[in-house]
Fold:
Amino acid sequence: MTTHFAAAEQTAIPAETELPERKSVVDGFAGYRALRRRIEDLQASGHTIPFFAPRDGVSHSVIRRDGQSLISFSGYNYLGLNGHPAVTAAAKNAVDKYGTSASASRIVAGQIELHGELERKLANFLGTDDALVFISGYLTNVSVIAHLLARPDAVIYDSGAHNSIITGARLSGAKTFTYQNGDWDALDALLEKERAGFRRGLIVAEGVYSMDGQILDLKRLVEIKKKHDVLIMVDEAHSFGIVGDTGRGVCEAAGLPVDSIDVYMGTLSKTLASSGGYIAGDAGLIEYMRYLCPGLIFSVGLSPSDTGAAIAALDILEREPHRPKRLRDRARFFRKIARENGLDVGGDEESPVASLIVGDDKMAMALSHNLLARGVEVQPIVRPAVSATTARLRFFLTANHTEEQIRITVPMVAQELEKLRRAAAAE
Structure:
């Protein structure tokens, strides 16, 4: 869901600026020109563009690309359920029965029995009254936040918030406030100062932060929620099926009542080996969204194959709670080996997201390129997804990664990074 080369802005350049012969409707856009310069600089340095490169086969700990086998840390098939025979069979069975598309928005004629089954299973797994599935995880955040809040209200999110949260907040028309990720005293002080100025407030946080890998301190957030009479929405895209003893997320991990979180949000594309998003919560919330949320009622229903796959994956997660534990073990092992090799990898010990900040865009791109040449795929994260000084490689750990793969990869990363830093110092 991150667009690494997306234009930061699309402001037309001044009319007096000399332009080359027009070839595209976006040639005059400053953002597009900046993009072209970055691509040309990358190509001039002898590096290939690492984005949108197709693979051959299932996203696994080892993938094939251009006939080459690569150890991959770029896919979030966290529990290894993408490609699981039962999940694949469920998707195929759903296509046989319902076809390849829901063929309408669900409120009109696109509802199939599998939609309701998946929603009941999600609600039962999380312990909420009900749940609602959307065709896109990004759309879920944007549409739900925009529909819940209005001008008299406020959305509060931290510096690590995903673009979908920020976009939803802006579209709501509500006031927006930001605090530094993890700085609970700052959030408390912000609400102490601003709370009287808005009707209802919604704090939106992430269970596991997709860029840095921190796990949410839900207990502290709930204390602040109660003190200032606001609502909490938690995006569990990277924590559902992972955090907590049985993978039920940050609420389970914190040992708090289910209703501590007002709006549960998550995606189906990670742990559940499918595509789409969901929200879960009390019956009134879900009824309100089911009938009135634009992102649901004006979008086609989730495809039969995606719905069937998610149901099967959730069934496996419930039957096999050792999968989340194995993933957490792999995350701890990765960070242990990283420390032994002098690498400062971000994120909590049991987080499946491990970021290695290397500095500027060029070094991140070069490091990714050099690792690929040695048989390891890990994507660089560069502007505007992160700031100019926090470009990084982001490792997604999965239950399918072996200790041997980690032992091979991490020293290689340390070696290649050291080479690049020496070369940079010599220039």
About this structure: The first helix runs from residue 30 to 44. The chain has two domains: 46-75+322-426, 85-319. Confidence is low (pLDDT under 50) at residues 1-16.
